[in-house]
Each structure stands twice: as structure tokens, then as C-alpha cells.
Design brief:
Elements (H helix, E strand, L loop, with lengths): L13 H37 L2 E2 L7 E2 L3 H8 L1 H32 L6 H13 L2 H11 L6 H8 L15 H25 L4 H9 L4 H29 L3 H6 L11 H11 L3 H30 L1
Antiparallel strand pairs: 1-2
Helix pairs in contact: 2-12, 3-7, 3-9, 3-11, 4-7, 7-9, 9-12, 11-12
Length: 304
């Protein structure tokens, strides 16, 4: 006796399956897009609009066109802030990168207590910025600070005035900035180092390559994606530096440490000139995005 025929299983149309998968995908990513739109895109577009207006946060914003940008070109404080921002970034970026990479290379070896040293190097990054500023201002005290006492002991008759000096205040802030940020970028570079296969170093040793050649021919190429990410993040954070300078020097002495972020804060929240502050923020935005695009193109050429 033959078996009864099986009932045909209905097939789901391919279009319906693709639609269902698309709906599921959008369900996961839509909250992120909504958050980005509401918390980032809308404020940025609003910033561009207010940069073309005269507005004090009360009443109606009066459209003035490019007047804020023209005024910025005549504002000596803006150019001082821009110069100081570039000064800080040009020194802070390479110093932090070199120190962080050196620490990552050192703590990637089998040394005793490396877990403790990793934690100790990262600890300043999560420490209160106010506490950091208070302690370092005491260390940099021209008359009673331990740093100048050590310099006098070493034979320096006139040690720097550090944060009390217009010439040395920015180097003092850069030193603290490097010390504070090196641990965070060390962790990122350390993670990148651990993705490089150890067999490459063993093969290079067999071929007779010394430490320096292994570093340039294996470590640096293997770290290129991580170095690109670290450089971009470090550049943006350096151009937007605000909290460290605000609590250490408040832009002084004079305007020796005034940076663009603090200039924007003063014009907006101190003088209530939000239109002018928005125009300065737009300039800072374009500086950050221009440098990022340049770094991306440079990295693509190096990889190609």
C-alpha cells in the first residue's frame, strides 16, 4: 500500500523575507539614528543657523549674514585663541602619541607588575580634572613648588614661573595634558599591539632582523589602523581642549593660554553673545573636520 502524498509546504516569497529582514535591521539601528539626529544633527544644524544671527539667548535671533565671521577676522582675541590652540595641539599630539606608544611597547613585554603599571598609567585619565589642576598648580608653584626646588638644587638659578608666567604657562598645561592623556591612548595602542601575530617577530628574528628593524617593519605596519584612530581622536581632543585649561589657568596669565573652546565659552555663556560664539564654534568645527579628512586621505595613501 503506497504512502499518502505529503502536503506541499508553502514557500515564503523572497520579497517578503527580504522585507522582514530589512525591518528587523532597521529596528536595531533606528534608535541610534534617532539619537544621532536629535542630539547631534539637529544641534549642529541649529549652530550653523545661529552663527548667521545676533542672539543673546533671549528674544528673537536677528539675521546678520556673515557679519559674525567678519567680526571674527578683526578680533585679536580670536586670533590669539586660534594661535594658542594650534600651539597646544602641535606639541600635545606628538608628545602624547610618543609617550603612549613607548608605554604600550614597554607594558606589552613580560615584566613583573605590568598589571599594576598599566593601571597606574591609566589612573590619571579617570581622575577628577579639578584635583589634577590643584595638585599640578602646587607642583608648579614658582616659589614653593617641588619642581622648581629640584631645578634650583640642580643649579638652575632662575627656574620657570610655569602657570604664573605668560611664557611658560602653555608648556605647563601641555605637560599636564600629556601626563593625563597618555594612559588612555596607551590602552588603545596596547590593544593594537596584541593583535599583531607573534610569529612575525619570530620569523624576523630568524632572518636576523634587529629590534629597530622589527619595530619599523612589523610593529608600525601592524599598528597602522590603531595609530590612525588614535591620531584622529587625539587631534580632535587637542583642538577642543577646554576643561584642563579652564581649571589650571583660566586662559591666563593674560591670554597666554586662551584657546578656541574657552573663547567660545566666554562669548556665549559669559557675554551672552550666542550668535558670535556659534560662529566661532563653526570655525572650530571646520578645523576639526578638515584635519580629520586630511588624516584619512593621508592614511589611505599610505595603505595604498
Amino acid at each position: 500500500m503506497s504512502a499518502p502524498p505529503r502536503a506541499a509546504v508553502p514557500r515564503t516569497p523572497a520579497l517578503n523575507l527580504k522585507t522582514r529582514n530589512a525591518i528587523q535591521g532597521w529596528t536595531f539601528i533606528l534608535p541610534n539614528f534617532l539619537g544621532f539626529g536629535l542630539l547631534t544633527l539637529v544641534p549642529v544644524l541649529t549652530l550653523f543657523y545661529y552663527s548667521l544671527t545676533s542672539w543673546n539667548a533671549f528674544g528673537k535671533a536677528n539675521f546678520v549674514g556673515l557679519e559674525n565671521f567678519a567680526r571674527m577676522g578683526r578680533d585679536s582675541s580670536f586670533w590669539t585663541a586660534l594661535t594658542n590652540t594650534l600651539y597646544y595641539s602641535v606639541l600635545h599630539i606628538p608628545l602624547t602619541l610618543v609617550v603612549a606608544l613607548g608605554l604600550a611597547l614597554l607594558l606589552n613585554t613580560q615584566i613583573r607588575g605590568r598589571a599594576f603599571f598599566r593601571t597606574a598609567a591609566f589612573f590619571p585619565y579617570i581622575t577628577s580634572i579639578v584635583a589634577i589642576a590643584v595638585v599640578w598648580n602646587m607642583l608648579f608653584s614658582p616659589d614653593f613648588g617641588p619642581i622648581n626646588q629640584v631645578l634650583r638644587f640642580l643649579g638652575v638659578d632662575n627656574p620657570p614661573g610655569w602657570t604664573a608666567s605668560a611664557d611658560w604657562s602653555m608648556p605647563a598645561v601641555i605637560i599636564v595634558g600629556v601626563w593625563r592623556d597618555m594612559g588612555y591612548y596607551m590602552i588603545l595602542l596596547l590593544a593594537g599591539l596584541q593583535t599583531i601575530p607573534g610569529q612575525l617577530y619570530e620569523a624576523a628574528k630568524v632572518d636576523g632582523a634587529d629590534t629597530w628593524r622589527r619595530f619599523w617593519n612589523i610593529t608600525i605596519p601592524g599598528l597602522r589602523p590603531t595609530l590612525f584612530f588614535v591620531t584622529v581622536m587625539l587631534t580632535i581632543s587637542s583642538l577642543k581642549v577646554f576643561d584642563l585649561i579652564l581649571v589650571m589657568t583660566n586662559g591666563g596669565p593674560g591670554q597666554s593660554t586662551l584657546v578656541l573652546s574657552q573663547f567660545i565659552y566666554q562669548r556665549g555663556f559669559v557675554e551672552n553673545n550666542f550668535g558670535y560664539a556659534s560662529a566661532a564654534a563653526v570655525v572650530l568645527f571646520f578645523i576639526c573636520i578638515s584635519v580629520t579628512i586630511f588624516q584619512y586621505v593621508w592614511n589611505q595613501r599610505k595603505e595604498g
